[in-house]
Each structure stands twice: as C-alpha cells, then as structure tokens.
Design a protein that fits this description.
The chain is of the alpha/beta class. It has a single domain, classed as 3-Layer(aba) Sandwich (Rossmann fold). It contains ten helices and ten strands. The strands form two sheets. A six-stranded mixed β-sheet has the order 6-7-8-3-9-10, with helices on both faces. It binds adenosine-5'-triphosphate (ATP) and magnesium ion (MG). The site of magnesium ion has 3 residues, from helix 1.
C-alpha cells in the first residue's frame, strides 16, 4: 500500500502567554482509501493536527518542526508547507477536503442549495457549462442520500442531518483523495449520525478517498475505522488497526479510554464496517465482528 498522506515529525506550538506544545513530533501515514480514526480527550491536539494538514492554522499557532506530504494518485508528491496563494486554495478543495464540526451551520442562509453547490464548480471547474453544473450538483446530492429536488431548497428548509449531508456533498464535489472530518456529526442525533457514517464508508469504497475521522466517540471510531490513532497531550500514544486496539490495547491511556465507554461492553449494535453493511442492527456479522464478539464473550 502507498500512503496518500505522510505526516513526518510534526510539532505545533501556540505562542500564547505560556507556550502550549499542542502537537509533539507526530508521525503518521494515511493509506490510500483507508479510514483512520483519531481519538483522544479534549485539548489533546486533534483539531490542531487537522488544521495543520489543511493549512488552516492561524497565529499564534506555529509549526516548529516536520512536514506533511501529499502523494497524489497521479504519481507526484507535494510538500504542503510549500503551497501558497492560488495553488493552496485550488489544492485544498481538489485534493484534500474537510468537514468540520458545526459545518452545517456554515451554509449561506440566503442562497439555495443548488447555488452553493454550483459555486464550487464555478470556482474550480470553470470549463463546465451551466447545464453540466446543474446535473453534477443533482448527482452529488443523491450520492449523499438527499433527493435532487432539494436543490431548490434554502438551508432552513432542511433538517440538520440533511444540511450536514450537503456539506459532505460539497466536500466530495471535486472528488478529493483525502477527506478530513473533525467531529462532523456530533451535533446530530445518533440515528442520523450512523446513517451518515454508513454513507461515508460506502462512498469511500466507491470513490476511493481516504478519511481522517476525528471524534471523542471511541466506540464510533471502532466501528468505522481501519486504524485508530490515540492522541494524548500532543503525542500519538498508540496506533493500531481497530480490532487490535480494541482487543489488545497496549498503552494504559488507551485502556482507560476504552473502559470509559460502558457501551463497549456489548449493548451497542454491530459494527458499521464498509462494504457489506446492509444492516444497522448488527444481525449479520462479518469475520472481524465475529472475532470481536468472541473476545467479548471470553472476557465476560
Ligand atoms: N488559539 C490558541 N491559543 C492558545 N492555545 C490554543 C489555541 N488553540 C488551541 N490551543 C491549545 O492547544 C491544545 C490543543 O487544542 P485542540 O483544539 O487541537 O484540541 P482538540 O484535541 O481538538 O480538543 P477538542 O476535542 O476539545 O476539540 C489545547 O491545549 C488548547 O488549549
Ligand atoms: Mg477539536
């Protein structure tokens, strides 16, 4: 496998009254098409890391060491710290897109959904005709499970879940190779959140993008991630595939984090794993899930 993103020895400080070492010598690779979960308590540096990758960090944040390299599927590498101006702006939606917490509230209230989706194409795909833009916008909406007749709607006419889906559609508009999601669904109720996550796991299988998914919700990450990185006080303290992290956590902090979610002892439904997930209630388990169940039974 070849990584699509390589974070090498990245350190970030906030130069406030006292300097905060928010991210400390983090090295991490994101494989093409994988979902990498990033977990850890509030203030451990997750968002700072996400902002650094998308080059959205602002003072007083300062990168004190390291770099982030994007390896395009077309075969070239880009050191993100070297991008500036138009190159950076183009890169940001085209290759790496993001959805942040509360993103659904950043839709423009006075513009119809169609105008907001089409704006992405006007800016980044100027060669498309008006009719082509309209068709693509409709396709995008349907891709995230929203009927295309909602193109005419204004944001306030949509539920929170639908608005968040529109934001995800927008992030996917240019078929990015990396999608960074920082607590994208925490404002939504659990059912809607799960539906949206299902959609994302299905879409990444279809479109082949990789995801960095950030949340406090470790049980959720265990369901959707291929690998999980556990972060604490700016450091990645453990990184492993989801099943190993769940069944054989090595770091005491990971163990503590796992034990702080009572739902992990079994009452939660089946895993949402990509591909064969028709079921939300976990009645049909794949191999991984069966192993998890078996381990759970043993430990009872
Ligand atoms: N603008 C800032 N100035 C000074 N310190 C900051 C600033 N932004 C963040 N920090 C500090 O950097 C550290 C990492 O913050 P960050 O927001 O990355 O954490 P997080 O893991 O995303 O937390 P949460 O789960 O609450 O979103 C924290 O100690 C925070 O107080
Ligand atoms: Mg955060």
């Amino acid at each position: 496998m070849s990584p699509v993103l390589s974070i090498e020895n990245l350190s970030i400080d906030y130069l406030a009254e006292t300097t905060v070492h928010a991210v400390r010598e983090v090295s991490l690779t994101l494989e093409r098409g994988e979902i990498l979960g990033l977990a850890g308590e509030s203030g451990c540096g997750k968002s700072t890391l996400a902002y650094a990758i998308t080059r959205l960090l602002k003072p007083p944040a300062q990168i004190t060491s390291g770099r982030v390299v994007f390896s395009s599927r077309e075969g070239y590498d880009v050191d993100l710290s070297r991008l500036a101006g138009d190159d950076l702006r183009a890169f940001r939606w085209d290759k790496i897109a993001m959805v942040f917490q509360g993103a659904m509230n950043s839709l423009n209230p006075v513009l119809r959904i169609s105008e907001q989706l089409e704006d992405v194409f006007i800016t980044h795909r100027p060669e498309l005709t008006k009719a082509e833009r309209r068709i693509r916008s409709g396709e995008l909406l349907e891709r995230v499970g929203v009927d295309r007749n909602r193109l005419r709607a204004y944001p306030h006419e949509l539920s929170g879940g639908m608005r968040q889906r529109v934001m995800i559609a927008m992030a996917l508009a240019l078929e990015p190779q990396v999608l960074i999601m920082d607590e994208p669904t925490t404002a939504l109720d659990v059912v809607v959140q799960r539906e949206i996550l299902l959609e994302i796991t299905r879409l990444r299988a279809e479109l082949g993008f990789a995801v960095i998914f950030i949340t406090h919700d470790l049980p959720l990450l265990l369901e959707i991630s291929d690998r999980i990185a556990v972060m604490r006080a700016g450091l990645i303290v453990e990184l492993d595939d989801a099943l190993t992290l769940y069944t054989k956590p090595k770091h005491p902090y990971t163990r503590r984090l796992l034990s702080s979610f009572p739902s992990l002892t079994g009452e939660r439904g089946g895993f949402v794993r990509s591909g064969d997930l028709g079921d939300l209630d976990g009645t049909e388990l794949d191999e991984t899930e069966q192993t998890v169940e078996a381990v759970e039974m043993e430990s009872r």
